[in-house]
């Protein structure tokens, strides 16, 4: 279980998080929600060690993650799919996947498993990542994270700018990871996706957690999304 307890963080002298708490349990999807600028991406970066936590704790199954460098957090099988994908653009699809495999020493079985989830990538293994379509690049970013055989999967706006067929494919992957016992933390803006996927919804505003609801309660009161997100 991933737990954030009252974390604070800053970019240099600019404070950005002022007390964010959330829990992501195995086999559940925790949706992290808030308006633009609320601090959602900052929370993801703090979990991954890309932004130092100045107060509070981040733990995975009780072991602290805060204070660890990003590479050691990834070795704890925390997969991260950042907004904008952040692929190695000049490397091939196969090389991007190999980099993911090396992180936790995974091999051919994991490679085959990932390519079975994204068969289109198998057809493009020799192609440079920068030449893929937007949807294919999102597939590759997701595949690279899955190469860790993650215990926790962080997805930051994974369907942004994608066509409906690609959105559905990413949704199916998220649901598959949930069914396989992965703790999923999802930043998403599409109301229908939030209502259909969330086991837990954590709302943040100005770098603070302001409300946490179980998915059933959110679906029973969808106006909560309008109130907090203005959608």
Can you describe this structure in just a few lines?
The chain has 231 residues and is α/β, with parallel strands linked by helices. It folds into 2 domains: 2-76 and 151-229, P-loop containing nucleotide triphosphate hydrolases (Rossmann fold), CATH 3.40.50; 88-150, no CATH class. It contains 10 helices and 10 strands.
What's the helix and strand layout?
Blueprint (H helix, E strand, L loop, with lengths): L1 E10 L2 E11 L4 E5 L6 H8 L5 E8 L2 E2 L5 H6 L2 E4 L11 H11 L4 H10 L1 H4 L11 H13 L5 E5 L7 H16 L3 E5 L3 H7 L2 E6 L2 E7 H6 L2 H7 L2
Parallel strand pairs: 3-8, 3-9, 6-7, 7-8
Antiparallel strand pairs: 1-2, 1-4, 4-5, 9-10
What does this structure look like?
The chain has 231 residues and is an alpha/beta fold. It has 2 domains: 2-76 and 151-229, 3-Layer(aba) Sandwich (Rossmann fold), CATH 3.40.50; 88-150, no CATH class. It has 10 helices and 10 strands. The protein has a 6-stranded mixed sheet with strand order 6-7-8-3-9-10, with helices on both faces. The model has no long low-confidence stretch (mean pLDDT 93).
CATH names the topology of the largest domain as: Rossmann fold
Strand content: 25-35%
H/E element string?
A: EEEHEEHEHHHHEHEHEEHH
| CATH architecture descriptor of the largest domain | 3-Layer(aba) Sandwich
Secondary-structure content class = alpha/beta
CATH class identity of the largest domain: Alpha Beta
Any idea what the radius of gyration is?
17 Å
- The helix fraction, in percent, is 25-40%
- What is the average per-residue confidence, as pLDDT, rounded to a whole number? 93
Regions with little confidence, pLDDT below 50 for 5+ residues: none
Shape designation: globular
Total count of helical runs of at least 4 residues: 10
């Amino acid at each position: 279980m991933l737990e954030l307890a009252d974390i604070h963080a800053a970019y240099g002298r600019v404070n950005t998080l002022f007390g964010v708490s959330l829990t992501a349990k195995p086999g559940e999807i925790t949706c992290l929600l808030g308006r633009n600028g609320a601090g959602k991406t900052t929370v993801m970066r703090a979990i991954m060690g890309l932004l130092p936590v100045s107060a509070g704790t981040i733990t995975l199954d009780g072991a602290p993650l805060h204070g660890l460098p990003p590479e050691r957090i990834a070795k704890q099988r925390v997969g991260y799919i950042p907004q904008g994908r952040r692929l190695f653009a000049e490397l091939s699809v196969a090389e991007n996947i190999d980099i993911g495999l090396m992180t936790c020493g995974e091999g051919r079985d994991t490679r085959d498993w990932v390519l079975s989830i994204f068969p289109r990538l198998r057809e493009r293994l020799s192609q440079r990542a920068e030449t893929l379509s937007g949807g294919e690049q999102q597939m590759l970013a997701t595949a690279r994270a899955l190469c860790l055989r993650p215990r926790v999967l962080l997805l930051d706006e994974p369907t942004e700018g994608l066509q409906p067929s690609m959105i559905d494919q990413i949704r199916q992957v998220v649901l598959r990871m949930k069914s396989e016992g992965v703790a999923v933390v999802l930043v998403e803006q599409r109301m229908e996706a939030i209502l259909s996927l969330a086991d837990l919804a954590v709302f943040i505003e100005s770098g603070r957690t302001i409300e946490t609801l179980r998915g059933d309660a959110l679906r029973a009161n969808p106006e909560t999304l309008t109130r907090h997100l203005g959608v």
